[in-house]
Every structure is written in structure tokens, then in C-alpha cells.
Design a protein that fits this description.
The complex is a heterodimer of chains A (177) and B (313). With 177 residues, chain A is α/β, with parallel strands linked by helices. Chain A is built from three helices and eight strands; from the N terminus they run βαβαββαββββ. Chain B has two domains: 16-136 and 288-305, Rossmann fold, CATH 3.40.50.1370; 137-286, 3-Layer(aba) Sandwich (Rossmann fold), CATH 3.40.50.1370. Helix content of chain B is 38%, strand content 14%. Chain B has eleven helices and nine strands. In chain B, strands 7-6-5-8-9 form a five-stranded parallel beta sheet. In chain B, strands 2-1-3-4 form a four-stranded parallel beta sheet, sandwiched between helices. In chain B, helix 1 packs across helix 5 (137-151), helix 1 (16-33) crosses helix 11 (284-305) and helix 5 crosses helix 6 (169-180). Chain B starts with 15 loop residues before the first helix and ends in an 8-residue tail after the last helix. Classes of the chains: A alpha/beta (177), B alpha/beta (313). The interface between A and B is medium-sized, with 20 and 30 residues.
């Protein structure tokens, strides 16, 4: 029987996002250079909430995109083809500070794929990484710039992030096998 | 997500969900084609053989560009300049190619069932690029993609396929795909080229062109396949054009939002009037663009089906 523990509830998620938004604003003085890109699927609703918080802090709208990394994954011949979601970056990222947003940072391979995929859209001035949960177990030299919560896990556990899904409360759940 | 096939051999054996998976995946690949950098590394390091035993230009070019945009390495193999001309069997040709460590074989062949045969004797993924008068699955998938993109759905649409049905692999694949996705299919053309047996596939057959096009949401025109006809099936092209060709007068009696489709190559003045081929209701060139996205999606999905969890078929 699997055991589930709620790690963050809806209010805690929102507090973490608002704090990250403040940290992003603090780290990047020129807010007009900032753009947010959510990684499909889990990073997209988080990037959207983060942009709302950030808009209030900087006083102008921050551009928001979404990126699917399926075509840039490094395990495509070891698994069934992933479900490809829309990529939508309706602005030029060249010269911008792109904050890549994802729900859970684990092995780091998704972020590696995201950086490759972003390269096809332009040459950002810099790329930063914001995640709601950092659960450790990196397989690549990748580190998040902004973290909602560091959560020590065992590789066999799974972290489920639910944000803005119809009929479900926002929460982060740790599931033990 | 529902795709765990190693091959794409036909539409007949696909489920509606599998067809929809290809169309959904193709949507993302169409977006790739609209970017400044139109290439992704999904098939980097993979080798694709385009084994075109029967001549083809547009399908071969579409596959080649799709493969290049997925970063695959490509070997082009055509019948005219090949060992097949020297008496080598298809199986030996394919196994020789596979000895080069190929991952995919895209095959066009004049014999129905050649891709199915190949899939049984080699380890590479096989993609059917047209086998005899049997099937042309990627054409049907790009037709479905084009219809769905323009009309927002396929279920419940009236689709009329007009022309040489008997010798058309496109017609067969389209009929499978359309009926699986819930469209109402009407076939029309000279009775010698549209046998009543097609009703068994769940289509309506009529020889009255006016009636066939009146309520159609889609008119899919097919070329007369001279090369596959062993005897003359109708008196003359001129008469065919008069009786079944889509002209201005006929178009005026169709729904105002009807879409005109054609898998190409078009014969202007035979199955379609020149002005109609270029009119705003014609989506013939969109079909060509969408063909790239659909073929990229098929290669991408089939690549996943080769993995440890993938099954053959």
C-alpha cells in the first residue's frame, strides 16, 4: 500500500511562488529583460502563477511562454514516445534573461533538454532556473537558482505536484512505494 | 498517449486513439516547421533508409525532409539504380541495408503487402510509404490532419472521395481513417473504377456526381492512375472530365465552406479545373505542408515503439 504525505498545501505553494517572484525581481534589476518559460506540463501553470506575482512586483507585464522538451530528450530510444505538448514562445528570447520554470527538479535531464530546446529560439543573455520542489538525485551538473522547497527523497519515491487542475486542490504530495 | 507500435504498416490495424495520437503529435511538429530553426535532435544518430522501389517524387521528398528535420542520417535507395534491377530479392536488399545498422526503413513498393513482409524479416522499423493499391497510411494521416485543422473535427463530416477508387491506395487508407474517426464517406466515379464492394468498408457508393458533392464538407479528388490500369476503364479523359471533373459549375452547387483536397499530382483540366485547384477552398498545398509534420510525428512515435516496452505491428 502506497503511503502519501502532503508536503505543501495550496496556501504554502502560493507563498513559495510569491517568495520566488520577489527573489527573481531582486536578482534581476532590469525587469524588462525578464521572460518566464514554463516547461510542459508541470511548469506551465506554475510559470503562469509566477508571472502574476512578478507583474505586481515589477509593475509591468512579464512575457510568458511555454516549452515542450520531448523532442530534445536524451532517452527517446529507451522509452515509448512522450506525449508532445504545445510549445509557445511568442517573443524573441535573444538578449533576454529567461527564467525556466518547472515543478520538480530531479535528475536534471529535463532542464538540460530545455536549455537545448531554448537554443533553437534564440540566444538568451542568461538562463535561470526556478522550481517548486528540488528533490535531489542530480545526474547532471545542474542547480536551481530559485527553489520553493528542498525535499530530501529516496529515488524510489515520487513527488506529485497538482496546480490548477480542474476539480483538484493545489498540493504537493510525496508518495512512498 | 497511446502508441507502442514499432511499425506503421497500414491504417486498417490502427485504433481511432492511435490515429488521434499521430494527429496530436503532428501538431507540435508543424510548429517546429514554422520556426527559424526547423530542426530538432529527436532522431540524432539514427539511420533511415528510403527504399523507393516504385518511383515517387513528392512522398520521397516529404519523407527525406522530415527525416532531416529530425536530425536522422539518410540513405536514399531507388529502384532505377539498384541491385533489385540485377535480380536481388526485396528481402536480400533489405537485409543488406540493415547490415549497415539502419534503424528505419521507409518503403514504397508496387506490390501490396511488401511493407508487412519486410517487417517480418528485418529488425528495423518499417514505415509504409505506399504499397500497390493497398494503403498509403501517411497520406491518410496528413489528410485527417488537414481536415481536423480546418474543420476542427472529423466526426460527423460528409467526405466525398471522387475519382479512381479501385486503383487508389490513398482511397483505401482514407476510407479506413475516415470511418474509424466517424466521418460519413461517399465514393463516386465511373462505375468501372468504383466497385460496389467498397460499401462493405462502411461507405456509400454513388455514380451521380451532383448528388455526391451536394452535401459534402470535404471533396477529396483522386487522379486517374493510368500506370496501375491494365485496361481502359472509361472511354476518354475528356469524357471523364465532363462527367466527373470538378468544374466551376459543379463547385457552385456545393456547400460554401466545402474543402477541396487532392493528394497530388493534380491533372489540371481532368479531375479538377485549373481555377479550382488554386481557389481559396482548395487546401492542396496545405496538405503538402502538413505531410511533413505528420511524417515527423510518425517517425518520432515509431522510434519510441522500438524501445523495450514496444511491441511489433
Amino acid at each position: 500500500m502506497a503511503e502519501s504525505t502532503v508536503i505543501l498545501n495550496a496556501a504554502a505553494i502560493q507563498r513559495a511562488l510569491v517568495r520566488i517572484a520577489h527573489e527573481i525581481a531582486e536578482r534581476n534589476e532590469d525587469s524588462h529583460e525578464l521572460v518566464l518559460v514554463g516547461i510542459q506540463k508541470g511548469g506551465v501553470p506554475l510559470a503562469s502563477r509566477l508571472s502574476q506575482a512578478l507583474n505586481e512586483i515589477v509593475g509591468h507585464p512579464v512575457l510568458l511562454g511555454r516549452l515542450d522538451v520531448s523532442m530534445h530528450r536524451d532517452d527517446l530510444d529507451r522509452r515509448l514516445a512522450p506525449d508532445v505538448q504545445p510549445t509557445d514562445i511568442p517573443f524573441d528570447i535573444t538578449g533576454k534573461t529567461v527564467v525556466v520554470v518547472d515543478d520538480v527538479l530531479f535528475k536534471g535531464r529535463t532542464v538540460r533538454a530545455a536549455m537545448d530546446a531554448l537554443n533553437d529560439f534564440g540566444r538568451p543573455k542568461r538562463i535561470q532556473l526556478a522550481v517548486l520542489i528540488d528533490r535531489g538525485h542530480r545526474e547532471l551538473p545542474i542547480k536551481a537558482d530559485f527553489v520553493g522547497k528542498n525535499l530530501p527523497t529516496s529515488p524510489a519515491e515520487s513527488v506529485l505536484v497538482v496546480v490548477d487542475e480542474p476539480g483538484r486542490p493545489n498540493e504537493v504530495v510525496l508518495e512512498k512505494p | 498517449m497511446s502508441w507502442n507500435r514499432k511499425h506503421l504498416l497500414d491504417i486498417e490495424s490502427l485504433s481511432p486513439e492511435e490515429i488521434t495520437t499521430v494527429l496530436d503529435t503532428a501538431k507540435a511538429f508543424k510548429a517546429v516547421g514554422e520556426r527559424a530553426i526547423k530542426k530538432v535532435p529527436a532522431l540524432r544518430g539514427k539511420t533511415v533508409v528510403n527504399l523507393f522501389v516504385e518511383p515517387s517524387t513528392r512522398t520521397r521528398i516529404s519523407f527525406e525532409l522530415s527525416e532531416q528535420r529530425l536530425s536522422a542520417d539518410i540513405i536514399n535507395f531507388t529502384a532505377e539504380a539498384s541491385s533489385l534491377k540485377k535480380g536481388e530479392t526485396l528481402k536480400d536488399t533489405a537485409r543488406n541495408l540493415e547490415a549497415l545498422n539502419t534503424d528505419f526503413i521507409v518503403i514504397r513498393h508496387s506490390a501490396s503487402g511488401a511493407p508487412h513482409f519486410l517487417a517480418r524479416v528485418i529488425d528495423s522499423s518499417v514505415i509504409n510509404a505506399g504499397d500497390g493499391a493497398h494503403e498509403h497510411p501517411t497520406q491518410a494521416l496528413l489528410d485527417m490532419f488537414t481536415i481536423r485543422e480546418r474543420k476542427g473535427r472529423i466526426e460527423g463530416l460528409n467526405v466525398t472521395i471522387l475519382g479512381d477508387i479501385l486503383y487508389s491506395r490513398v482511397a483505401r487508407s482514407d476510407i479506413w481513417a475516415l470511418t474509424k474517426l466517424g466521418a460519413k464517406v461517399t465514393l463516386c466515379g465511373p462505375s468501372t473504377l468504383v466497385p460496389r464492394q467498397f460499401e462493405q468498408l462502411g461507405c456509400r457508393v454513388t455514380y451521380d456526381v451532383e448528388e455526391a458533392i451536394r452535401d459534402a464538407d470535404i471533396i477529396n479528388l483522386l487522379r486517374i492512375q493510368h500506370e496501375r490500369q491494365r485496361k481502359t476503364m472509361f472511354p476518354s479523359l475528356n469524357e471523364y472530365s465532363r462527367l466527373f471533373g470538378l468544374n466551376k459549375a459543379r463547385l457552385a452547387r456545393t456547400k460554401p465552406d466545402v474543402l477541396i483536397m487532392h493528394p497530388g499530382p493534380i491533372n489540371r483540366g481532368v479531375e479538377i479545373d485549373s481555377q479550382i485547384a488554386d481557389c481559396e477552398r482548395s487546401v492542396i498545398l496545405e496538405q503538402v505542408t502538413n505531410g511533413l509534420a505528420v511524417r515527423m510525428a510518425v517517425l518520432f512515435l515509431v522510434n519510441g515503439g522500438k524501445g523495450p516496452q514496444g511491441v511489433s505491428g
